[in-house]
Amino acid sequence: MNSKADGAALSDKDLNRFADKLHQAFINHTPTGQITAERGLTLDDAYQVQRRLIERRPGKLAGRKMGLTSRAKMDQMGVDVPIYGHLTEDMRLTSGGSIAHAKHCHPRCEPEIAFIMGAALKGPTDIAAAQAAVKSVCVALEVIDSRYKDFKFTLEDVVADNASSSHFVLGEQQFAPADVDISNLGMVLELNGQVKETGSSAAILDNPWRSLVELVGLLAPLGESLSAGDVVLAGAATKAVAVSPGDVARVIVDGLGQAEFSVI
Ligand code: OOG
Ligand code: MG
Protein backbone atom coordinates (compact mmCIF):
# COMPACT_ATOMS: atom_id res chain seq x y z
CA MET A 1 0.00 0.00 0.00
CA ASN A 2 1.22 3.47 -0.78
CA SER A 3 0.31 5.50 2.27
CA LYS A 4 2.34 8.62 1.73
CA ALA A 5 0.65 11.42 3.61
CA ASP A 6 0.81 13.63 0.54
CA GLY A 7 -0.23 10.85 -1.84
CA ALA A 8 -3.82 12.03 -2.04
CA ALA A 9 -5.12 12.46 -5.56
CA LEU A 10 -8.24 14.42 -4.59
CA SER A 11 -8.18 18.18 -4.21
CA ASP A 12 -8.26 19.76 -0.79
CA LYS A 13 -11.78 20.92 -1.54
CA ASP A 14 -13.02 17.41 -2.35
CA LEU A 15 -11.34 15.87 0.71
CA ASN A 16 -13.11 18.44 2.89
CA ARG A 17 -16.40 17.98 1.08
CA PHE A 18 -16.37 14.21 1.71
CA ALA A 19 -15.34 14.69 5.34
CA ASP A 20 -18.25 17.15 5.74
CA LYS A 21 -20.68 14.69 4.13
CA LEU A 22 -19.66 11.90 6.55
CA HIS A 23 -19.66 14.25 9.53
CA GLN A 24 -23.19 15.40 8.71
CA ALA A 25 -24.35 11.77 8.48
CA PHE A 26 -22.80 11.21 11.93
CA ILE A 27 -24.36 14.33 13.48
CA ASN A 28 -27.80 13.67 11.98
CA HIS A 29 -27.67 9.85 12.46
CA THR A 30 -28.77 9.58 8.85
CA PRO A 31 -26.90 7.22 6.51
CA THR A 32 -25.50 8.72 3.33
CA GLY A 33 -24.47 7.38 -0.10
CA GLN A 34 -21.04 5.90 -0.71
CA ILE A 35 -18.32 8.34 -1.78
CA THR A 36 -17.16 5.86 -4.43
CA ALA A 37 -20.61 6.03 -6.06
CA GLU A 38 -19.83 9.70 -6.69
CA ARG A 39 -16.18 9.47 -7.62
CA GLY A 40 -13.14 7.21 -7.31
CA LEU A 41 -10.66 7.73 -4.52
CA THR A 42 -7.39 6.06 -3.65
CA LEU A 43 -6.70 4.47 -0.29
CA ASP A 44 -4.46 7.46 0.48
CA ASP A 45 -7.36 9.80 -0.30
CA ALA A 46 -9.60 7.73 1.97
CA TYR A 47 -7.20 8.00 4.94
CA GLN A 48 -6.95 11.75 4.25
CA VAL A 49 -10.75 12.04 4.43
CA GLN A 50 -10.66 10.02 7.68
CA ARG A 51 -8.15 12.44 9.23
CA ARG A 52 -10.30 15.42 8.26
CA LEU A 53 -13.37 13.69 9.67
CA ILE A 54 -11.61 13.21 13.02
CA GLU A 55 -10.67 16.91 13.07
CA ARG A 56 -14.41 17.66 12.91
CA ARG A 57 -15.25 15.48 15.92
CA PRO A 58 -15.30 16.64 19.50
CA GLY A 59 -12.98 14.79 21.85
CA LYS A 60 -9.25 14.34 21.81
CA LEU A 61 -7.50 11.31 20.41
CA ALA A 62 -7.81 8.19 22.59
CA GLY A 63 -5.99 5.76 20.29
CA ARG A 64 -6.61 3.67 17.19
CA LYS A 65 -8.57 0.62 16.15
CA MET A 66 -7.82 -2.06 13.64
CA GLY A 67 -10.69 -3.43 11.56
CA LEU A 68 -11.30 -6.32 9.18
CA THR A 69 -8.57 -8.36 10.87
CA SER A 70 -10.58 -11.60 11.00
CA ARG A 71 -11.98 -13.75 8.20
CA ALA A 72 -15.44 -13.56 9.83
CA LYS A 73 -15.46 -9.76 9.52
CA MET A 74 -13.96 -9.73 6.03
CA ASP A 75 -16.63 -12.15 4.82
CA GLN A 76 -19.43 -10.24 6.54
CA MET A 77 -18.42 -6.91 5.00
CA GLY A 78 -17.02 -8.13 1.67
CA VAL A 79 -13.74 -6.26 2.21
CA ASP A 80 -10.59 -8.30 2.81
CA VAL A 81 -7.92 -5.75 3.68
CA PRO A 82 -7.19 -4.82 7.33
CA ILE A 83 -7.74 -1.12 7.99
CA TYR A 84 -7.40 1.27 10.90
CA GLY A 85 -9.45 4.08 12.36
CA HIS A 86 -9.06 6.75 15.03
CA LEU A 87 -10.62 6.46 18.51
CA THR A 88 -11.52 9.68 20.31
CA GLU A 89 -12.41 10.20 23.98
CA ASP A 90 -16.06 10.91 23.19
CA MET A 91 -16.30 7.33 21.84
CA ARG A 92 -15.28 5.83 25.19
CA LEU A 93 -18.06 4.17 27.19
CA THR A 94 -17.63 2.79 30.72
CA SER A 95 -18.48 -0.89 31.03
CA GLY A 96 -22.12 -1.06 32.07
CA GLY A 97 -22.86 2.24 30.34
CA SER A 98 -25.42 2.81 27.61
CA ILE A 99 -25.79 4.20 24.10
CA ALA A 100 -28.93 5.80 22.66
CA HIS A 101 -30.06 3.88 19.58
CA ALA A 102 -31.72 6.99 18.17
CA LYS A 103 -28.36 8.73 18.04
CA HIS A 104 -26.97 6.12 15.66
CA CYS A 105 -27.65 5.07 12.08
CA HIS A 106 -27.73 1.27 12.56
CA PRO A 107 -25.40 0.26 15.40
CA ARG A 108 -23.75 -3.14 15.68
CA CYS A 109 -21.42 -4.54 18.31
CA GLU A 110 -18.46 -6.87 18.14
CA PRO A 111 -16.18 -8.73 20.56
CA GLU A 112 -12.62 -7.48 20.71
CA ILE A 113 -9.37 -7.40 22.68
CA ALA A 114 -7.74 -4.07 23.55
CA PHE A 115 -4.23 -2.92 24.37
CA ILE A 116 -3.34 0.09 26.51
CA MET A 117 0.05 1.46 25.62
CA GLY A 118 2.59 2.02 28.42
CA ALA A 119 5.20 3.51 26.10
CA ALA A 120 5.47 4.85 22.57
CA LEU A 121 5.52 2.34 19.71
CA LYS A 122 6.64 3.04 16.17
CA GLY A 123 6.59 0.73 13.16
CA PRO A 124 7.97 -1.31 11.61
CA THR A 125 8.29 -3.50 14.67
CA ASP A 126 7.74 -7.04 15.96
CA ILE A 127 5.61 -8.78 18.56
CA ALA A 128 8.30 -8.73 21.27
CA ALA A 129 8.73 -4.94 20.97
CA ALA A 130 4.96 -4.46 20.87
CA GLN A 131 4.55 -6.50 24.06
CA ALA A 132 7.26 -4.47 25.79
CA ALA A 133 5.43 -1.22 24.93
CA VAL A 134 2.01 -2.36 26.17
CA LYS A 135 0.99 -1.68 29.75
CA SER A 136 -2.14 -3.82 29.79
CA VAL A 137 -4.48 -6.04 27.82
CA CYS A 138 -8.23 -6.31 28.38
CA VAL A 139 -11.51 -7.41 26.80
CA ALA A 140 -13.39 -4.86 24.74
CA LEU A 141 -16.66 -4.35 22.93
CA GLU A 142 -16.77 -2.11 19.94
CA VAL A 143 -19.91 -0.38 18.70
CA ILE A 144 -19.63 0.22 14.97
CA ASP A 145 -22.11 2.35 13.04
CA SER A 146 -21.44 2.81 9.34
CA ARG A 147 -22.49 6.22 8.09
CA TYR A 148 -23.36 4.57 4.75
CA LYS A 149 -26.80 3.35 3.72
CA ASP A 150 -27.48 -0.33 4.40
CA PHE A 151 -24.07 -0.67 6.15
CA LYS A 152 -22.55 -1.24 2.68
CA PHE A 153 -19.23 0.11 1.47
CA THR A 154 -16.01 -0.46 -0.45
CA LEU A 155 -12.58 -0.53 1.20
CA GLU A 156 -12.03 3.18 0.41
CA ASP A 157 -15.49 4.17 1.67
CA VAL A 158 -15.08 2.46 5.04
CA VAL A 159 -11.61 3.90 5.55
CA ALA A 160 -12.95 7.42 4.84
CA ASP A 161 -15.73 6.75 7.39
CA ASN A 162 -13.16 6.13 10.14
CA ALA A 163 -13.67 2.37 9.90
CA SER A 164 -17.31 2.72 11.09
CA SER A 165 -16.10 3.65 14.61
CA SER A 166 -18.80 4.67 17.06
CA HIS A 167 -18.00 3.66 20.67
CA PHE A 168 -15.68 1.36 22.58
CA VAL A 169 -16.06 -0.28 25.98
CA LEU A 170 -13.06 -1.68 27.87
CA GLY A 171 -13.24 -4.44 30.49
CA GLU A 172 -12.38 -3.39 34.00
CA GLN A 173 -9.84 -6.18 34.54
CA GLN A 174 -6.46 -5.24 33.11
CA PHE A 175 -3.63 -7.74 32.60
CA ALA A 176 0.09 -7.23 32.11
CA PRO A 177 1.17 -8.77 28.77
CA ALA A 178 3.54 -11.17 30.56
CA ASP A 179 0.68 -12.55 32.67
CA VAL A 180 -1.66 -13.66 29.85
CA ASP A 181 -1.33 -15.58 26.62
CA ILE A 182 -3.93 -13.97 24.36
CA SER A 183 -3.07 -15.94 21.23
CA ASN A 184 -5.98 -18.40 21.45
CA LEU A 185 -8.69 -17.42 23.94
CA GLY A 186 -12.37 -18.32 23.61
CA MET A 187 -14.53 -15.25 22.97
CA VAL A 188 -18.31 -15.05 23.34
CA LEU A 189 -20.67 -12.25 22.33
CA GLU A 190 -24.01 -12.31 24.16
CA LEU A 191 -27.12 -10.27 23.62
CA ASN A 192 -29.57 -10.29 26.55
CA GLY A 193 -27.89 -13.37 28.01
CA GLN A 194 -28.13 -15.32 24.75
CA VAL A 195 -25.01 -16.39 22.90
CA LYS A 196 -24.93 -14.70 19.47
CA GLU A 197 -21.36 -15.32 18.31
CA THR A 198 -18.45 -17.43 19.52
CA GLY A 199 -14.88 -17.37 18.32
CA SER A 200 -11.24 -17.34 19.29
CA SER A 201 -8.75 -14.53 19.64
CA ALA A 202 -6.67 -16.54 17.15
CA ALA A 203 -9.15 -15.37 14.50
CA ILE A 204 -7.60 -11.89 14.80
CA LEU A 205 -4.68 -12.12 12.33
CA ASP A 206 -3.75 -15.49 13.95
CA ASN A 207 -2.78 -13.60 17.12
CA PRO A 208 -4.07 -10.18 18.30
CA TRP A 209 -0.47 -9.01 18.84
CA ARG A 210 -0.04 -9.12 15.07
CA SER A 211 -2.82 -6.57 14.76
CA LEU A 212 -0.88 -4.09 16.91
CA VAL A 213 2.29 -4.73 14.88
CA GLU A 214 0.32 -4.26 11.64
CA LEU A 215 -1.21 -1.00 12.93
CA VAL A 216 2.10 0.71 13.65
CA GLY A 217 3.34 -0.55 10.29
CA LEU A 218 0.44 1.25 8.60
CA LEU A 219 1.00 4.44 10.62
CA ALA A 220 4.76 4.63 10.03
CA PRO A 221 4.73 5.92 6.41
CA LEU A 222 2.64 8.86 7.64
CA GLY A 223 5.19 9.66 10.34
CA GLU A 224 2.68 8.58 13.01
CA SER A 225 3.10 6.25 15.95
CA LEU A 226 1.40 5.27 19.20
CA SER A 227 1.93 7.08 22.51
CA ALA A 228 1.75 5.95 26.14
CA GLY A 229 -1.90 5.87 27.21
CA ASP A 230 -3.26 5.15 23.73
CA VAL A 231 -5.97 2.50 23.46
CA VAL A 232 -5.76 0.07 20.54
CA LEU A 233 -8.57 -2.29 19.53
CA ALA A 234 -7.26 -5.35 17.70
CA GLY A 235 -10.40 -5.96 15.60
CA ALA A 236 -13.40 -8.22 16.00
CA ALA A 237 -12.95 -11.98 16.32
CA THR A 238 -16.46 -12.70 15.00
CA LYS A 239 -19.15 -11.10 12.86
CA ALA A 240 -20.74 -7.94 14.25
CA VAL A 241 -24.31 -8.17 15.61
CA ALA A 242 -26.98 -5.47 15.25
CA VAL A 243 -28.31 -4.02 18.53
CA SER A 244 -31.77 -2.61 19.28
CA PRO A 245 -33.23 -0.49 22.08
CA GLY A 246 -33.48 -2.57 25.28
CA ASP A 247 -30.54 -4.84 24.41
CA VAL A 248 -27.68 -5.61 26.76
CA ALA A 249 -24.53 -6.68 24.92
CA ARG A 250 -21.75 -8.53 26.71
CA VAL A 251 -18.38 -9.92 25.66
CA ILE A 252 -16.74 -12.66 27.71
CA VAL A 253 -13.17 -13.74 26.97
CA ASP A 254 -11.61 -16.80 28.65
CA GLY A 255 -9.37 -15.62 31.45
CA LEU A 256 -9.79 -11.91 30.69
CA GLY A 257 -13.24 -11.24 32.13
CA GLN A 258 -16.07 -9.35 30.50
CA ALA A 259 -17.45 -5.98 29.45
CA GLU A 260 -20.97 -4.88 28.63
CA PHE A 261 -23.17 -1.99 27.60
CA SER A 262 -26.88 -1.47 27.12
CA VAL A 263 -28.92 0.21 24.40
CA ILE A 264 -31.68 2.65 25.24
C1 OOG B 1 -15.74 -1.85 9.50
C2 OOG B 1 -15.04 -1.88 10.83
C3 OOG B 1 -14.49 -3.25 11.13
C4 OOG B 1 -13.57 -4.76 12.93
O1 OOG B 1 -13.35 -4.96 14.13
O2 OOG B 1 -13.37 -5.62 12.07
C5 OOG B 1 -14.11 -3.44 12.54
C6 OOG B 1 -17.13 -2.41 9.57
O3 OOG B 1 -17.30 -3.62 9.69
O4 OOG B 1 -18.08 -1.63 9.46
O5 OOG B 1 -14.22 -2.61 13.40
MG1 MG C 1 -14.07 -3.48 15.40
Write up what this structure looks like:
The chain is built from 7 helices and 13 strands. It is globular and about 50 Å long. α1 packs across α3 (43-56). The protein is an alpha+beta fold. The strands form 2 sheets. Strands 1, 2, 3, 5, 6, 7, 10 and 11 form an 8-stranded mixed sheet that branches. The longest helix has 17 residues, at 12-28. Residues 1-6 have low confidence and may be disordered. The site of magnesium ion (MG) has 9 residues, from β1, β5 and β6.
Précis, in short:
With 264 residues, the chain is α+β, with helices and mostly antiparallel strands. The chain has seven helices and 13 strands. Mean pLDDT is 96; it is low at 1-6.
List the keywords.
single chain; 264 residues; alpha+beta; five-stranded mixed beta sheet; 7 helices; 13 strands; globular; binds 2-oxoadipic acid; binds magnesium ion
Number of helices: 7
Write down the overall mean pLDDT: 96
Low-confidence stretches: 1-6
Number of E-type strands: 13
Strand-and-helix sequence, N→C?
HHHEHEEEEHEHEEEHEEEE
* Classification by helices and strands: alpha+beta
Write the layout of secondary structure elements.
Layout: H1 12-28, H2 35-38, H3 43-56, E1 61-67, H4 71-77, E2 83-88, E3 92-93, E4 98-99, E5 108-117, H5 127-133, E6 134-144, H6 155-160, E7 165-170, E8 186-191, E9 194-200, H7 208-219, E10 231-233, E11 241-242, E12 248-253, E13 257-263
Parallel strand pairs: 1-10, 3-7, 4-13
Antiparallel strand pairs: 1-2, 5-6, 5-10, 5-11, 6-7, 8-9, 8-12, 12-13
Helix pairs in contact: 1-3
